[in-house]
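Troubleshooting: if your tokenizer reports a length mismatch, compare against these two reference records.
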Amino acid sequence: MALAADKMAGIRAANIVREDFAVLCREHNNANVLTLSGRFVSIEENERIVDAFLATEFAGGRHADRVAKINALD
């Protein structure tokens, strides 16, 4: 689903299977769409992933250049 979502302008989707990955995708890539695994990750872990994703802000700084390059592809 992340691949399909990324086809839309302005979308930076991430397929996340661990809570720490959710934090990193938000901080470093400013991900704004989250896709989850129903097969390999428990409901409880997915809930923690969603909470972490929503609670994390984009770090900006040195990561802003990368996000600008990604946005330029739209």
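Reference record two:
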Amino acid sequence: MDPPPSILSLPNELLTIIVVAGQHDCGTHTPTAHKSEWILSHVSRRFRNVVIGTPGLWTNIEVRFAEDSYEHRFAEVLKLYLQRSNPLTMNVSVSLGILDDGVATLAEWLLQVAPEINRIESLSVVLRSIQDDFSLEFAPLRHLAAPNLLNLEIINLSYIRTARCPLQLFSAGAPNLSSVRMDGFFPHPAPPWISSLATLKIDGEHFLEDDDKIIYLSMFQTQSLCLVNLSIDLYKVDLPPTSVRVPSLASLAISIDHADDDFLMWQNVAFFDCPALTQLTVVGTHGDQVFNSLFNAPGPRFKLPPGMSFPLLHTLSFILKPIDGCDCEDTEGMTPPTRTHFPKTTPFPALTSLILYNQCYTTHLVREMLMGTHALPWPYFKTLTLCPLKHTSDVRMVIEEAFQRSVPKLRLCPSLFCPENGVGA
């Protein structure tokens, strides 16, 4: 009987498949030394020759400076991946941790990456820095062309919330760029690659000054011809009176000042004229705003901007970040919202799903939706998703009572509940 074959005798193609499977199991954010291409390249000389000689195993470059500890190792790992992946396209991700000299390291890292920009499909930079000017650090990318770049992500986890960090990137063009996310930064107005974007996400309070905002926001109308998904922070931005029309936009997420009233909230939404919009998310809302918006329009406290309508909108989300906090229900003198007007029309005739995350007065909203004396104004409504962080027992009681009636489909998110009356966080 022949002895079973040794792993050392496996064909090269099977070794490659094993490495790829290990990469999928590891996922992202795995330390370099634990990645399958590194481990198996040290098993034997034959393994090493196969792994190093297969460029496709080195196309996902992920280096985290905080874990690789030393700057020389950081640069060495990056250099090896750039060499071994050649000539294939690659995905590059770097995280600079919380080191004081992280910004200097960023500049050196970009100098290494810049010559290979033609091969990069996805570029992600995540750093922590309190400085407010990154023009020198990102200078290596300023005048480059990135013909194969599809996704760009630049995030500062420690940016000053009043800082303005405009970045000029790829001024020679990035014709295939389809997705951009900037957190703590924003691009200079009218970058040459804006017309090809399908997804744009810009986070960061006070990211615009008064002199820039009209030029910047009008860019969506004049140049964002393919934009499908837009997420933008409009915290304390005084919008111009005329709206911008983005016919291609299907998903819109805006962040507003959580102290805004009902009308200002919808002014921010109505600024974007999006006839094809199917999903709308408003971050920074309170439950009484939502109640009046859904059930009391038009009324003395709430009035939709003239002509505002979302004929194709099927998913509507209202969110308050936990960091913003809300004590409305626990503050003496605050009055729960009540239904006083019964509009015959709705700006959301196709609505099928409503999501309420961390909203005060969730109990009152649920009671009105599930047990109100008047029918819901949305004939196709199916799903109500609740993520309450307070008064969960009250919400539960209303739901249990409503189960005796015909109710829409409910989707609860218990992992987001606060510990209260036995409900786990």
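Descriptive notes for reference record two:
- The chain is about 25% helix and 20% strand.
- The first strand starts at residue 60 and ends at 64.
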